[in-house]
Structure formats: structure tokens, C-alpha cells
Specification:
By secondary structure, this protein is mostly helical. The chain is 56% helix and 0% strand. It has one domain (9-72). The chain has two helices and no strands. The protein is flat and about 60 Å long. The chain crosses the membrane at residues 16-35, 47-65.
């Protein structure tokens, strides 16, 4: 039986997708300088605040999950 290839099985397609993704990301970061924000707090008016906030939140969630794993993990033979 022949395996059906998907669009992201070809490394060239993945490279094209990533280049397009990074170009789009750059356009969004540049567009943030020209968009007026209606912020509730003064620090929310900073340029690219929400991009930095989202990035730092994801990174901190990774480190919190690693620390939490030390507290709740069980031995490999726990269910044996």
C-alpha cells in the first residue's frame, strides 16, 4: 500500500510556509506601530506589549510545568 504524501511532508513546502509565516509576523509587528490602542492601563499602550506579554506568558508556563512535574511525577512502575 502506497503512503499518501501530505502537503507538509515535503521539506520545501515547510520552508515556504515558515518564510511566509515569518514575513506575516514581521508585518504584524510593524503594523503595531501604526494602530491606535484603546488601553485600560498605561503599559498596554507600549508598542508590541501584547506580543511580548504573550511570549513571556508561554515561556513562564513551560518553566512552571517543569517545576510542577517534579512535584507530581510518579515512579515508572507505579501501576505495576
Amino acid at each position: 500500500m502506497k503512503k499518501e504524501l501530505k502537503i507538509f511532508d515535503n521539506p520545501r513546502n515547510v520552508k515556504i510556509f515558515l518564510i511566509g509565516f515569518y514575513i506575516f509576523l514581521g508585518i504584524l509587528l510593524i503594523a503595531d506601530f501604526f494602530i491606535h490602542k484603546h488601553a485600560d492601563f498605561p503599559w498596554q499602550e507600549a508598542h508590541n506589549f501584547f506580543a511580548a506579554y504573550g511570549f513571556l506568558s508561554c515561556v513562564s508556563l513551560i518553566f512552571i510545568a517543569k517545576a510542577l512535574r517534579l512535584l507530581v511525577k510518579r515512579k515508572e512502575d507505579h501501576y505495576d
